[in-house]
Amino acid sequence: MNIVFIFLLAVIEPPGKPIVNDRPNDAGRNITIQWALSPQDDEIDGYEIYRSQVDGPFEIVGYVPKGNSSFTDSTQDGIKYCYQIAAVKDGEIVAQSEISEDVTSSGQWFHTGRFNIFIGIIIYSIIVLWFIYQAHLGKKMYIRKISGLDALEEAVGRATEMGKPILYVPGLSSIADIATIASLNILSQVAKKTAEYNTTLLVPNRNPVVYTVAQEVVKEAYTDAGRPDAYNSDNVYFITGQQFAYVAAVCGTMMREKPATNLFLGYFWAESLILAETGASTGAIQIAGTDSVFQLPFFITTCDYTLIGEELYAASAYLSKDPLLMGSLKGQDWGKLIILGILLIASALLLVGFEQILSLFNIS
Amino acid sequence: MNLSPEPLVWISAFLTLCIFSFLYRDNILYQFAEHLFVGLSAGYLIAITWHNQIYPNLVIPLFQEGRVIYIIPLAFGLFYFTRFIPKLAFLVRLPIAFLIGWGSGVIIPAVFQRDILRQTQGTLLVREAFEKWDTGLWAIVILVGVITTLIYFFFSRERKGIIKPAANIGIIFLMIGFGASFGYTVMSRISLLIGRMQFLLGDWLGIIR
Questions:
Q1: Burial category of A213 from C-beta neighbours within 10 Å (exposed 0-12, middle 13-18, buried 19 and up)
Q2: Which ipTM did the prediction report?
Q3: Keywords for this entry (chain B) (predicted)?
Q4: What pTM did the predictor assign?
Q5: I need a labelling partner for A240 at 20 to 30 A (CA). Which of A18, A294, A329, B131 fits?
Q6: Quick one: B85 and B118 in the same domain?
């Protein structure tokens, strides 16, 4: 070991032997080191953490100020390491702990601190699958009226009568966003109607992947409607990934093409009001839907109909009446009912002093 | 008035006014700025994607470090271009399916944690909330708001009986929330306009400091 000892007049006792462990619930490459502080912790500046591979030289891997008794080291998985802690004062080592046991870092497949999330998703999935199964068996499922979606047929019909296009903006987010996926499901239904009515459907895109998916969705919808010849790939197009450049281009399209119907369905940011205001100024009928709480007020004030949050997710089931989607929707409702029940029961238990119920919600 | 001598400030001010001209009507100046903006941003996106994504995450590991496993993401990326070859166009569905599956897998546990577990935990009535009458009252208001809003979003039940008034209360809570959000967001948008006006009147025309 190349650590030089400097003995000072005042005796500094070493920190405790480090306890080393692979950090739990991670993807590996991390080791946590903990030690008992030196009894003279107040008199030193801090602790240097030294690491060695088995029989190899020690090297410094970190420093923590006095009062701290833990450190997480970045390592390579599968290699055995041992650690030593040195108390430091005025840049010199004044005491040194014993060498730790050997330790190896590794990744874990399962995060035990999130077991409640796992159980919750399993229960929810079973409920949804059960209702999908029921729907598959032919059980009738009821779905309440959603005005914004009832207006879709009217909006497509209006565009057809006026001989003008329909503008469909699938939000500005990525394909990983639930609102985008919901929007693409609605796009499929809208595209089927435009194919039947032979109405032009314009779909400008901001995200390259969403653009590719949107093209596939519209193409398939036209094929399903028996009108593959009416599909024009130029009508589903990519503009740019820059938010406000995209908005400038869509606003220009609204002013020049004068669509009879504007559909803003998906996830939106600050552009929502610009798009909806421009659309309103052209006299188009506008239907919007998003799960972005901050943008919903703008759509509510400027559009004819607005799908609020989960109404957007329910739209594809509502429009297609596909039994599988209806079953899924029923399952979601039961999920909400369970949450409602948990809220009431857990609140009642907490009020009578059963605090342990809170541990059900803890996540590490 | 102390006009800026900087040509870039003049260009920036000109383009700002071009975009503002849309407030009057669509015109050739707006169209010029719009197309310039779209073209520049698309080009910039390509450069950024190459430097921040493709080069460090694919070119270096695959071609410089020789990590052969990176052929898989390369192939998946190239599948996107099969759209231009009709006979192979079906291959584009592979990366799309992968991305949607991966995206759902990543987002669902995160949403469950953030929007369900945390929100439920925050809504529960606890004894400490009732140590003061006002905090207790707000805790009850939040609980009632969450329950009635959840009922508003029940789709598979007809709105009759207890569900109807509960859903009506839920929509009132929603609209109050949207009203508050509206005011807050408008304030932040006005600050954006103020920033642009400061640029025009300060940096460009030099009327204000």
A1: buried
A2: 0.90
A3: Membrane, Transmembrane, Transmembrane helix
A4: 0.85
A5: A294
A6: yes
